[in-house]
Amino acid sequence: MGPRAGPRVSLGLLLFVWLTVYCSRPQAAGFSQEGLEASRANLWANANASLLQGFWCQPASQLSRDELSALIRRMASQQVLLKAWQLCCLANLAALRGLQGDFLLHPPDLLLFYNLEQVREADCRAFTGRAARGDTELLANLPDQRAALQHAALACLGGPHRQLSASDLLLLGVLVCDMDASSIVASDPQVLQNLQRCPQLTPAQQAAINTLLASGRTVLGPPVSWNPAGLQALGPLATYISPSLWAQVQEAVGLDFFGSMVAACRAGQLSQRDARRFVTSFLEAETKAKSMSSRPKRGTATVRPCIHGNITAATLRDDLFLVRYDCSQLESCLGSQVLKANLDPLLQHPLPAECQRVIKAKLAQIYPSSVPEEQLRLITSLVYLYTHAEISLWNITSRDTVMALLASDVALENQTEPHQPLSCPQAILQKFLDHKGKITSALLVAIGGSRLCWMSPQQIQAIRPSEFRLAGALDVSSCPQSRKDVLYSKAREAFSSTRSSAAYYHFIRPYLGGAPLEDLQHLAEANVSMDIHTFTNLNPHVLQSLSVDHVTMLLGQNVGDLQKARSHPTVSSWLRSLNRLALGKLGLDTDPASPASPTGPVPSTPGTRDTTLWASHLAATSGGSGNDGPYSGSPPAHLRCLPLAVALPSSLLWLLYWGSLGPFGDCSQGACTAASEDSTMLAPHAGKSGPVGGAGCQPGPGHRPQVQGTRPSPTS
């Protein structure tokens, strides 16, 4: 931690002592059990959003019904945004505690994961209205649950084939995002209000929107009568308007709206992606109109002379700049000095791809050897145009430069072609590493988990385990399988010294998509109750080798969620390999191809004694007891205050750890050395090669100090 760690360690110790005192209350004389239950429920009822966002199902499974109810209600009142893996298991916990009937007091996102068969017919409209306020993209890995949700909602309205009225659409909310094109066109024009909430639309849905707008049935009327206020009311849907419709809009109205959209983009109120889609469509209509009025003569040069005058700094401040200067005029009218001095304001405009290539070519003329590093930080939107050979000429010495080039959404949207031997992001990182740069936890957090997919295996291996640990949970689910495999190996190295199976699973969970068969089998034996969202991200080829018993043990009480994801390619492929007897054992119907009918959680398999994850390599702990709770990998019931510690922000969890490290080792240099061999958890294959890395003494949130030289207990 270094010399400046003192104040932070003190804070960690202070929090640790507070939690210890709170945990000791049940043993204090004079406290009634009823009073303690009410106190704990009150604790959850007053937790803030940052604590609740760290929700973790395993310790939360020890909460009583009232405590869990208070927790869920607090999440709703604080509008806490949980991830899909958290919501999957929380929904099952709520069902086990009989809380699903209180859905009106629960977060809308949570309702998306509920057992729809348990919704009473009398409650269907109220349930649908509440669920329709959630984010259906959270169900991306549960296609059957998503389809069943829409089917149930339409059935509640009288059937899937009736024309949807304005009142129906008001109830359906975001569930309309899954409607097909024909249903959109046939619905009341109010459907446009619903579609504004959709994070993405299919090409067929976009075409349906244009059909509806062209019909004149909307409040805007026919395109010739559109006005700026009406266009503004369309929100993000205006970015999908086709060139053929823009050609029918009055010129003054179109230009007014164009200026407002560019201004919103430059102010950061509209993403570059959406703004560029709008600008490209609008300018296509403008170009067609101009070409019809003045067709060039044969033999005319492709590069036209500058017609509208040289571009100046004042010109670039004009929101109609791209209307007055098309890409050809940009090439003719933009001088080198103006470009050098005004690169940032120029690139704030949502330039079409053709114009971006013009800017890149002009920069090559100004900087023939290499773009200076201070300018590199400004060309985020152009990075995808550069080849690895061109990037190899850059001078990248600063972490800020790497973050500017890779951390933006534009960089993520414009990845280079996969056939290139060295991708653009890899080349940028390699130039940084070549200048003795280091991939730190701060850099990993800044560029995000999805950018790890771009790193080469060698670059991933170069990340120090201590930095990987401090970066916390990174979402790498979008990575190709080859990268998931490497990232899992790195994560296992980083977290191998975690002192309890439950805590180890909590840290390793985001990286399990690269786990080999043996490791998943060990996890199954540790009874971690994997959520279905994580399960769908496992390596499909490895999953094919898992037996029904192992999958049942791996999912635990969440095994019933297989029904919600049976059409997911990974799950579907595995189910097709099973016979009728095996399907029945999983609680599924015997025809894998039959329509899904999501069920609730099924009783978990009989729990085994909680052991450290890699029990085959460790001696059994004395004094262990069985665990009758729904999560046999969870802490025992007497640690009911543990969920609060787990819910603390990750930074504070690390503080608790560093502050209580004491006798276990020295982490002052950023790498942890265990105090004794016995106090280090071995990785899955550690029996062959010893402790992984010798670093990484991160205990889980349920960590308690151990006596030096003794093996940590499973639930410590």
TrEMBL record:
**GO terms for CC?**
cell surface; membrane
Major place of residence: membrane
Polar residues biased stretches: 707-716
Q: Does the keyword Membrane apply?
A: yes
Annotated region Disordered: where? 589-610, 682-716
Q: Name one GO biological process term.
A: cell-matrix adhesion
Subcellular location(s) of the protein: Membrane
- Signal peptide range: 1-23
Q: Where would you find the membrane-spanning parts of this chain?
A: none
Composition bias type Gly residues, residue spans: 690-699
Protein family: Belongs to the mesothelin family.
The protein, known as: Mesothelin-like protein isoform X2
Q: Lineage of this protein's species?
A: Eukaryota, Metazoa, Chordata, Craniata, Vertebrata
